[in-house]
């Protein structure tokens, strides 16, 4: 199966992999899956043979039948063993492939076993003692010979470090990566294929070292590592293709990719449905200077198919751009913000709603904070489902409020997540998987961490959105998303399912809006594109 990812996101494909091919393991989870496969009767060398053959097939496809030179950079572990198998298979097929072994203090037994079968096999440094002890003689090449191998290769295979690696790199691996990057700089036509992950990528977080291999194609063995689904790592992987080698995937992997058949089941509308069964969403937010934010949230909920959408406003605030389908809850007074005096009227309106979207354009300061306190207490008392976004999240962090007693979804961007967790934005972006998990656990909710590769976490599991476009980075885009989440939270039993579906729908709508505009989009255009995405999901 294949998922095309628009904009700057590279395609992701699974070919011949297991039914759970869209699970995204951590390095520890992948090690457990490997061990389970081996313990169940599949020898490690057999898995390695299958992996190396798959890599060789992808290298051959890049050569397009030409017998041009291939250089395979092999590290000391099983990733290097995969590379050795690929070099051998290519050589047996008549492709001039050379395996270049990196020096190390120790090599895995499987890697040593593959060295015995690989020819030609050369080393980037004098024969390491570990190989001499194993009785393996590998000629060490002079610098000019190594330069010739790099300079003449049509394809370079990166099999230096696998799924257990952690930046930063050390020599001699670091030196080989630097040399590969130099070659790409002077010869852009050379193709680079990474085995499992590019060397320099942290498989758990998506962080990268300097240097880091820039691959044209990453051949993931059985499963794609979760770090490859986040930036900056995603940008170093190129096209990602998962190939099956017979490692059974198991459901206890914490994160999975979200797209197509891997999405939670979308709620269908019955032929005889009436609007009251499609969810009543109340949008609470806005202030005199930001009346548009809750309007965009309402627009998102309407285009997502909510039966009834209500929006809180004051009579003195501008409502000119509000869609006529939206019902107004008009508050008295002429205050610039919502305040504690408005709580009772808002809670009365909430009684008629299935979901309350709270926060877009709410503003900050004492009045807004007191209003939020009162509304949250009231919503807890009646057990309403809530989506919190934007200023509600900032006030939540500032006031130290909790969400216990609510069925809640929070939708922070990295800056808001940093405030909620008391961390720097760089720390959030450095480990988005850890951050979204902690958000969900600390605030007893489902968390949706926005950004390229949006992550959703709730009910002990997480998902990564495959779709998207950089044109989603536009004012009001997040407000539209909160409205879509609100609509689906009214229709889905599971808050996680609602958030995951909404994030996917929003990403696809951004792609469609960008295609229609030919470039940058407005948030209202994203909202209008939501309808078509929803329609397709309902017709599946």
Attribute tags:
540 residues, alpha/beta, Rossmann fold, UDP-N-acetylmuramoyl-L-alanine:D-glutamate ligase, 2 domains, eleven-stranded mixed sheet, nine-stranded mixed sheet, 18 helices, 16% strand, elongated, disordered N terminus
Summary, kept brief:
This protein has helices spanning 27-39, 44-63, 78-92, 109-115, 129-133, 143-152, 173-186, 233-237, 292-303, 343-350, 366-382, 391-399, 414-421, 425-430, 432-442, 477-491, 495-517, 523-539, and strands at 2-3, 12-15, 23-24, 70-74, 97-101, 121-123, 155-159, 191-195, 217-221, 239-243, 255-258, 280-284, 308-314, 327-331, 355-358, 385-388, 407-410, 446-449, 455-458, 461-465.
Outline the structure in words.
This protein has helices spanning 27-39, 44-63, 78-92, 109-115, 129-133, 143-152, 173-186, 233-237, 292-303, 343-350, 366-382, 391-399, 414-421, 425-430, 432-442, 477-491, 495-517, 523-539, and strands at residues 2-3, 12-15, 23-24, 70-74, 97-101, 121-123, 155-159, 191-195, 217-221, 239-243, 255-258, 280-284, 308-314, 327-331, 355-358, 385-388, 407-410, 446-449, 455-458, 461-465. Strand 19 and strand 20 (461-465) form a beta hairpin. By secondary structure, the chain is an alpha/beta fold. The protein has an eleven-stranded mixed β-sheet with strand order 3-11-20-19-18-17-16-15-12-13-14, sandwiched between helices. It has a nine-stranded mixed β-sheet with strand order 1-2-10-9-8-7-4-5-6, sandwiched between helices. Helix 2 packs across helix 3 (78-92). The radius of gyration is 27 Å and the shape is elongated. The longest helix has 23 residues, at 495-517. It has two domains: 2-253, 3-Layer(aba) Sandwich (Rossmann fold), CATH 3.40.50.10260; 275-539, Ribokinase (UDP-N-acetylmuramoyl-L-alanine:D-glutamate ligase). The protein contains 18 helices and 20 strands.
